[in-house]
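can u pls check wat happens w/ manganese (II) ion
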Amino acid sequence: MTEHAAAYVRQLEEAYSFMASRDDFLVVSHVQPDGDAISSTVLIGWLLGRLGKRAVLVNEGAVPSRLSYLTLADSITCVKEHPLDRSFTHIISIDCADFRRIGIVSQSFAEDAQLLNIDHHPTNDAFGTVNLIRPDAAATVEILYDLIAHQGIELDLEAATAVYTGLLTDTGGFRYSNTTPHVMEIASELLRIGVSGNQLADHLLEKMTMPQLRLLQRALSRLSFTDDGRISWLFIEPADLADTGATGEDLEGLVNYALNVEGVEVGILYKGTEDGHTKVSFRSAGKANVAAVAQTFGGGGHVRAAGCRIEGQVPDVISMVVESVRRALG
Ligand SMILES: [Mn+2]
């Protein structure tokens, strides 16, 4: 075993003993939870249940409706709607790159709280009492799979479905560069357990709701380009959500329609808010560092995916932001 692998096994064991030696846990993933966040939450819930431990599963926000098929998904409390009535000493934080990503749930941490931090973001600052961080994991569920497998615990079909869901969503359907041989080995094992890979891909990646489609129609009708075709953008106004019945969830992935046009280097999505602000999402094909662009507007993110929030309505901020991207492209 390499030193790297040995260190990982040690981390897996420390994380497991954190759970095995305590009881009464609060399990939380990041605000605006995605497929990996919710899958990881239910997997931890499943594991703690197997260990005979008490746990409360929470998130600041609601579980996206398309993830409601996951086991235990309906037992995740939305703290924004149902505040917790007591504090917790034993916390498990999953898929959160930093403490702030926990959101308002952190108000329910006891002063002497001990926190197990499990995550795969390279920017994780190890804010836990115990940290299990593996930046080369495609998803947090991959780390949880390794943890469970290392203990020799067998996954049932529902737990396997949760692992598959997290892998599928965080690898964009096994397409992103984080789709390693290890990811495919795990996926293969999950299919063997009986997970229906094609049904999940159909449900999570292909199917659209009618409101989502109507929102996409509107957005695409506004798709615009700079003269050289290197920057593309679309925008959504608050009225679009009201008119189409779409929700914030349905905005996910819209920016890719701008980025994925041949020749486009940066795709931008503008979303107007009710209070006169504009949320901007940037995606870069690689030449422009959009994190730096977002930073000039007080935002941040990754080199190829970033965002910011600007005061002013959509029509008033478009050209200013495009100019700034143009400068970043050089
Ligand atoms: Mn993740």
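The first strand starts at residue 25 and ends at 29.
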